[in-house]
Amino acid sequence: MDYWIFIVTTQESDGREFVAEEVLRQRIEDKFWGLGEKTPNRKNVEQGDKVVFYIGNPVKSFAASAPLATGAFKLSKEEQDSFSHGTEFYRPPYGVRLKDIQVWDDRKPVSDLLPILDFIEN
């Protein structure tokens, strides 16, 4: 079993802004996380691995966690349509299914954790 950090940031797509918290909320509701063709380590993500969800600037906090219900898989056109919510932004070629998602009432600011996260250089 491995541990991963899935990062979500505010993005512009389809002529609108997708706020990081909105994206995280949608993916949690879907019990699915999209992965791109060039997502680092996509092929190494496996069922049973655990993830924490990090919301980037300006929030800079860990907000939720979940074990993976599946490893990374290529989505069929039907699955892409289902998870797209009518936008290209939510239409990734790959993804993982999530289970037992824990949304934290108290987010964990990364600044509070930096002293114990030796692997973070910047």
Structure description:
With 122 residues, this protein is α+β, with helices and mostly antiparallel strands. It has one domain (3-105). It contains 3 helices and 9 strands. It has helices at residues 20-30, 77-84, 110-113, and strands at residues 3-8, 11-13, 16-18, 32-35, 50-55, 61-67, 73-74, 94-97, 102-109. A 4-stranded mixed β-sheet has the order 1-5-6-9. Strands 4-8-7 form a 3-stranded antiparallel β-sheet. The two termini are 26 Å apart.
Search tags:
about 120 residues, alpha+beta, four-stranded mixed beta sheet, 3 helices, 9 strands, globular
Sheet of most strands: 4 strands, mixed
Stretches with pLDDT under 50, minimum 5 residues: none
Instruction: Give me the count of strands.
Output: 9
Distance between the first and last residues' Cα: 26 Å
So what's the overall shape? globular
Can you count the helices?
3
What's the helix-strand series? EEEHEEEEHEEH
Using only CA atoms, what is the Rg?
A: 14 Å
Helix content: 10-25%
The largest sheet has its strands arranged as 1-5-6-9
Please tell me the total number of domains: 1
Structural class: alpha+beta
Mean pLDDT: 92
Beta-strand portion reads 35-45%
Give a summary of the structure in a few sentences.
By secondary structure, this protein is an alpha+beta fold. It is built from three helices and nine strands, in the order βββαββββαββα.
Write the layout of secondary structure elements.
Blueprint: E1 3-8, E2 11-13, E3 16-18, H1 20-30, E4 32-35, E5 50-55, E6 61-67, E7 73-74, H2 77-84, E8 94-97, E9 102-109, H3 110-113
